[in-house]
């Protein structure tokens, strides 16, 4: 999982979902599990 200040490039990928959990933004991608991310802060 990548920790990034901006998730826009991860969220633009096909199959990506932006999810808010415990006050943090996550990107989950079931098609490409490599492209998971959490927003910093």
UniProtKB/TrEMBL annotation:
Family: Belongs to the bacterial ribosomal protein bL36 family.
InterPro entries the UniProt entry points to: Ribosomal_bL36 (IPR000473), Ribosomal_bL36_sp (IPR035977), Ribosomal_L36_bact (IPR047621)
Protein name (Swiss-Prot/TrEMBL): Large ribosomal subunit protein bL36
Keywords: Ribonucleoprotein, Ribosomal protein
TM segment ranges: none
GO cellular component terms, semicolon-separated: ribosome
Record HAMAP family: Ribosomal_bL36
Entry keyword annotation includes Ribonucleoprotein: yes
rRNA-binding recorded as keyword: no
SUPFAM superfamilies: Ribosomal protein L36
Source superkingdom: Bacteria
């Amino acid at each position: 999982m990548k920790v990034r200040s901006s998730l826009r490039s991860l969220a633009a990928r096909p199959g990506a979902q932006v999810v808010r959990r415990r006050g943090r933004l996550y990107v989950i991608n079931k098609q490409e599990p490599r492209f998971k991310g959490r927003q910093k802060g």
